Amino acid sequence: MGQNSILEKTHEFFQMCDIENKGFISRRDMQRLNDGLPLSAEELENVFDTLDSDGNGFLTLDEFSSGFSEFLCGQKIS
Amino acid sequence: DPNMKAGAANEGVLANFFNSLLSKKTGAP
């Protein structure tokens, strides 16, 4: 995957979570994904806490994209 | 370091999350 497509995917995924286009993802936005994704509310809570590196309760695109990069790195190793 | 351990445990959840987003995007079941 090229750098541009990673950036594109990051934006796409961010927008899938930030459906109101606020520019950040709140804990409530994350819980809404419960309907569309095969993850439990607890798992989504866990994902949110993992991505929210500064712990302020909001996920910015920066935090989201570093989580996505970490995921991609893990994929490469395994 | 307890934070490192927690991070490792959460890696699987994170992978699960992004994989689900990928499947949702591509329309795979």
Structure explained in plain terms:
The complex is a heterodimer of chains A (78) and B (29). Chain A has 78 residues and is mainly alpha-helical. Helix content of chain A is 63%, strand content 5%. Chain A has helices at 3-17, 27-32, 41-51, 61-77; strands at 25-26, 58-59. A two-stranded antiparallel ribbon of chain A has the order 1-2. Chain B is mainly alpha-helical. Helices cover 86% and strands 0% of the residues of chain B. In chain B, 14% of the residues are buried. The interface between A and B is medium-sized, with 21 and 13 residues.
**What is the 3D form of chain B?**
rod-shaped
> Spans of chain B with pLDDT under 50 lasting ≥5 residues?
none
Q: Uncertain segments of chain A of ≥5 residues (pLDDT<50)?
A: none
Q: What's the tally of helices of chain A?
A: 4
Largest sheet of chain B: none
Helix content of chain B: over 70%
Helical residue percent band of chain A: 55-70%
Quaternary organisation of the protein chains: heterodimer
Instruction: Give me the Rg of chain A, rounded.
Output: 12 Å
Strand order of the largest sheet of chain A: 1-2
Largest interface: A-B, 21 and 13 residues
What overall form of chain A do the CA principal axes indicate?
globular
Following the backbone from N to C, one meets helices and strands of chain B in this order, namely: H
Helix-and-strand structural type of chain A: mainly alpha
Strand content of chain B: under 5%
Distance between the termini of chain B: 38 Å
Number of strands of chain B: 0
Number of helices of chain B: 1
Order of helices and strands of chain A: HEHHEH
What does the largest sheet of chain A look like? 2 strands, antiparallel
Q: What class do helices, strands and sheet pairing of chain B give?
A: mainly alpha
